[in-house]
Description:
Layout: E1 14-18, H1 22-34, E2 38-42, H2 45-54, E3 59-62, H3 71-80, E4 89-93, H4 98-106, E5 111-114, H5 119-190
Parallel strand pairs: 1-2, 1-3, 3-4, 4-5
Helix pairs in contact: 2-3
Amino acid sequence: MSAPDQLPPAPRGHVLVVDDNELNRSLLSSRLKMQGLSPETAANGQAALELMRAQPFDLVLLDIMMPSMNGYQVLEHMKADAALRHLPVIIISALDQLESVVRCIELGADDYIPKPFNPTLLKARVSALLEKKRLHDQQAKYQRQIEGDNRQLEERIREQVKEIAKQKMEDLNTQDLNQAMKIIEGTARSMGIEVAG
């Protein structure tokens, strides 16, 4: 037990558990909480997609066999949505035929765990995918920062080029004016006109 003045550790990941069976949702949520994660649940595919579009998640645990919208359809919607495409998904399903596993992977799932799930295997795979998501998010953040820095640098270069071009024009105008004055003075002297210097 922790001391009363200490706060519990902050959850390391926000995980969506999607299963039409309430017992499965409860069991998975409880396992995730034991890992220090913050689970949220959805009882069907449509509710899951609405939640994913409304708030950020780090991982989705998805059942295949659900009424109205099954797990395959959820994966298809996620793959078609640029905002959800990179969200890691672990399929947790009683369907363990090779064709089902292959189809899930082809539709964008990152992993597949058969039911009943092994808690140790679940913990390891959840941890691995959360780390993968963290690294993806970090890379995306660095990419955005680099793109912002590049835009600022390009703007600074444009301003410097404008300033250099303006200075060159001023220099050329001054040189042209000086050259013209020398020609006028030379012509005036050749005509016997005295030019004040």
